[in-house]
Amino acid sequence: MISGFANPHRFMSFSRWAAPTLALIAAALLALGLWLGLSAPPDYQQGETVRIMFVHVPAAWTAMLAYLCLGGASFASLVFRHAVADAAASAAAPLGAAFTAAALITGSLWGKPMWGTWWAWGDSRLVSVLVLFLLFVGYIALRASIEDEGKAARAAEILALVGLINLPVIKFSVDWWNTLHQGESIFRAGGPLIAPVYLIPLMLTGAGYSAAFAALWLTRTRMEVRRRRSLGLALRAAR
Amino acid sequence: MIAGITLEAVALVRGGRTLFEGLNARVGSGRALTVTGPNGAGKTSLLRAIAGLVRLASGRIAFEGSADPAEARRFHSHLVGHQDGLKSARTANDELLFQARWCGATRQAALAAAERLGLAPHLALDVRRLSAGQKRRLALARLLAAPRALWLLDEALAPLDAGGRALMGEIMAEHVAAGGLIIAAAHDPLPIAADTLDLGR
Amino acid sequence: MSGLGVLLRRELSLTWGAGGGPLLSVGFLIAATVLFPLSLGSAAQILGAVAAGLVWVLLALASLLSLERLFARDFEDGALDIIALGPLPLEASCAVKCLAAWLTNGAPLALASPLAAVALGEPVGAVPLIVLTAALGSLAFVFVGGIGAALSLVSRGGALLQTLIVLPLLIPPVIFGAAAVFAWTHGLAWTPGLALLAAYALAAIGLGPIAMAGACRNALG
User: Fold this and answer.
1) What pLDDT score was predicted for residue A6?
2) How far apart are CA C16 and CA B201, in angstroms?
3) Do A6 and A83 contact (CB within 8 A), yes or no?
4) Which pLDDT tens digit goes with each residue over A16-40?
5) Taking CB atoms and an 8 Å cut-off, how many pairs form between chains A and B?
C-alpha cells in the first residue's frame, strides 16, 4: 500500500475520492455516536458530565494515532525516500497538535466538575497527552526553523523517529510515576469497566474521529504535494 | 588505494534546484582536474559529493582500485575546503597534531609537513594569531603528513600569497608525479598542469 | 594512537578549556539553586519535600545548556567535515564527543548536585545515591541532548528550540532518577528507579549516536 502511495500521481488520484468519502463516513459516525451519547442516561456518579467522554477520549486516541502516522510516514520517508511520505509527515503534525490540544481542553473541562480542578497532575493519562502535545510542538518548531526544505524534512524525520521510540518509554515512566505518588493523586478518571450504553457511542465517536483525521490528513497531504509541485515549477522557471 | 575516479551521469540537486545533471568525467592516477564554473554552479557540492558528504540526486561515482567507496573516502582521500576547521583558542601545534593524527599520520610526519610549509616558527602560537594564509597552510599540512591518493581541494589555495601558491604548486606536482589524483575547484588556474571540467551553463 | 584517543583528547581539551567548561555549568546549577529558597521561602518542610525534584530539573537544564555548542562550533568552522571524513564511523565520533561532554560537564554536575540537594534540605545520607543517579542521569541527558544539538545545527532556533525538542524526551530519566532519591528519603524501595534509570542511560548511549550521526550528515550534506 505504501509503495503505491509513493507515486505522487497515484496518490493524488486515489486521495481525490478517498478524502471526501472518509469525510462523509466520519460525519455519519460522529452524528450517530453523538446522538447515542447524548441520549444515553446520565451516569449515576458523574451525571451529565460523563458525555464529555465522547469528545475527550476519542481526541486522545486520535492524537496517539496521529503520532503513529507521523512516525510511520517519517520512517517511510527516511528509509525508502518516498516522495509523498514526507509531505504526509509534515501534514500530520499540525493535525496531531490540534487533536492533543482538543484532548487537553476537553479533559480540563471534564476535570473541573469531576475533580473540582481544571488540571490534575494525578491523572497520568492526561499528563501523557500533554507530553504528546509537546512532542508535536517540538516537531513543528524544528521543521519551521529550518529554511532548506530537504534538510528540514530529514531533521524532522529523525526527531519523529526518536520520539516514536521514546513514546512508549515516556508513557510507561509517567504511569510508573503515578503509581509511585499515588498517595497524592486525587482521582483516577473513568475506569476499565464502562457500561455498554456508553461504550457503543464511545466506539462510534472514536471511529468517527479516526475517519475525520484520515480525511483531514489526506487533504492536507494533497495540499502539500500541490504546494511542492508549484514550487518545483517556479524553481525550474527561475533556472 | 585509488587508481581513478569515474563520474557517471551525475546529477546534484540543492534546495530543490538542479545544479547540473548528466555529468560524466574521469580522473586517472597521476592526473589533476580543475573544476571551474560561475558561483553557484555546484563546484563545492560536486567535491563534497565525491567525498561522500552530499548525496547524489542520480548517477554514480566509482572509485577504481577500491572495492568499498566508503573505505576509499575514509582512508584514501583528503578534502580541504573553504574552511580550515581550526579552533582559534588552541595552539597551531595542537590543531596540526589533531588534524594530522586524525588522518593517521605520526607526530614526526606532522612536524615535517609544518616545516615544509614554513609553519615551524608559528606552531607555538594560538590559531587566532595566525593570518588567513598561515591558517590555510596549517589546514593543508595534513595533505603532506598523511599520504593519501585523492586530494579534493575546494578553493584551497585562495588565501595563499604568491610564495604559498608556488610552494603548493611544487607539492601538488610531486603528488601527481607519484601517482596521486587531484580534483580542485578553482576560479584561478591551478599552479600545475590540469584537465578542466567546466560546470558553466 | 588510535583515532578514538586522538578525538577524545581534542574534545576534552575543547570542552574543558574553551567557553568556561565545567565552571559554567556548575556555576549555573548553584546560582539557580539559590533562586528556589528565595522564591519559595526558606521553610524547611517546603524545600526539603521538593529538594530532590528541584535538583533533577536543574541538572537536566544545566546539562542541556552546556550542550548547546556540542556540534555547532565544529559545524561552523568546518571541523565537522574533517571529523565526518575521519577514520571512525560518524556514530562513534558523535559518541566520543558526548563522552567528552559528559566527562567535563556531566560528571562535575553530578558531583555538584548533592551540594545543591543538601543545601535545599535533602539528608546527607542520600549523597551517595544522589551522585550515582545524577551521574547516570547526566549521561542520559548528554546522549539524548546531543540529538537536539545535532538536529538544530541547520535551524535558526538556537538554544530554546534545542531545549524544546529534547525536554519531553528527558521526562523518563528525570522521573526515574528523582523517584529513586525520593524513595530512598521516604524509606521506600529505591532500586527500581535506579535500575530503570541505568537502563534508560544505556539505551541512550546505544541509540543516541545513531540519531546524532544522521542529523550531522543531514546538516553537512
Assistant:
1) 61
2) 49
3) yes
4) 999 999 999 999 999 999 998 888 8
5) 12
Residue C152: CB partners within 8 Å, gap ≥ 6?
A: A142, A145, C158, C161, C162, C165
Q: Let me know if A67 is exposed, middle or buried by CB neighbors in 10 A (0-12, 13-18, 19+).
A: buried
For residue A231, the distance in angstroms to the closest alpha carbon of chain C comes to: 21
Mapped to the 3 state alphabet, what secondary structure does B146-187 carry? CCCCEEEEECCCCCCCHHHHHHHHHHHHHHHHCCCEEEEECC
CB neighbours (10 Å) of residue A21? 13
Q: At C211, is the secondary structure helix, strand, or coil?
A: helix
Q: What are phi and psi of B6, to 5 degrees?
A: -120, 130
Task: Please give the grid coordinates belonging to residue B112.
Answer: 615535517
Q: For residue A80, give Cα distances in angstroms to A84, A126, A232, B53.
A: 11, 35, 21, 19
Instruction: Report the pLDDT value the prediction gives residue A113, as an integer from 0 to 100.
Output: 81
CB B59, CB B96: distance < 8 Å:
no
Mean pLDDT of C33-53: 86
- Chain B residues bordering chain C (beta-carbon distance below 8 Å): 48, 51-55, 73-75, 77, 79, 81-87, 89-90, 94, 98-99, 101-104
pLDDT, position A133:
95
- CA distance to A99, B38, B52, C100, per residue, from C212 (Å): 30, 34, 17, 15
Of A192 and C21, the structure prediction assigns the larger pLDDT to: C21
Given a contact cutoff of 8 angstroms between Cβ atoms, the answer to whether C123 and C96 are in contact is: no
Look up cell 554514480; give the residue: B60
State how far the Cα of B88 lies from the Cα of C10, in Å rounded to an integer: 13
Whether residue C105 contacts residue C61, with contact meaning beta carbons closer than 8 Å, is answered with no
Q: Name residue, grid cell 582521500.
A: B77
Secondary structure of chain B: what % helix, strand, coil (to 5)?
Answer: 35, 25, 35
Beta carbons of A149 and B15 less than 8 Å apart: yes
SS3 for B80-132, per residue? ECCCCCCCCCCEHHHHHHHHHHHCCCCHHHHHHHHHHCCCHHHCCCEHHHCCH
